[in-house]
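User: Could you check the structure of this?
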Amino acid sequence: MPQQDLASVRIVLVETSHPGNIGGAARAMKTMGLGALWLVRPQRYPDPQAEWRAAGALDVLDQARVVTELDDAISDCELLIGTSTRSRRIPWPPLDARQAAEQIIAEAPRRSVAVLFGREASGLTNDELQRCHAHVQIPAHPDYPSLNLAMAVQIVCYELYRAAGAAGGAADTAEAWDRELAAVADVEAMMAHLEQVLAEIEFLDPANPGQVVTRFKRLFNRVRLDETEVKMLRGMLSEIQRSLKRP
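Assistant: Sure, the predicted structure tokens are below.
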């Protein structure tokens, strides 16, 4: 059995259309020691099919948090991993399931962590993926690379269980930063502030922003800003705005 407790790692399912996948995901989590399931706008839930597919994991369903906005599930997270089945125009830092699990296990003792899974038909939107620090892709045969949602959850949960067992008690000794990492909500607020200032100084054309904001998002997510750095950047942006108003 892994020594590291995985119960606090969130599995977040966004707009799941089939309740059976919710039950299958709950069962996948339970078999690997995870229990924090968040559901964002599920199309059919509660539903008997979810309970049937969950089998012995009804406690995971009973404790699941159902929310209407993604922010409610991730805003306080300091590490956010998104799952993606296809490459994007602007690539994000890529991880396979094993690499993602190892990073999560190293950070979970000190930080709030969530793994996002998207809709069965279309996955996560670009906007949702751009909020993540890294993207996970599960390689599959090119002739049929599509994984069922519950299967994808099972693979990620298995890798978390394996990584926790390999880490044992060593995860708590992972390198510590001198400040707490910024939560997703704080980085999002800073990005909105930055976009506003870039428009005010005419660095950014709001009518034709191109990929400027997206690339800034990728930069800051790759760096992993801490709370003090976000406050410094917000302070700098506020001072720029004040200077623009001076005669």
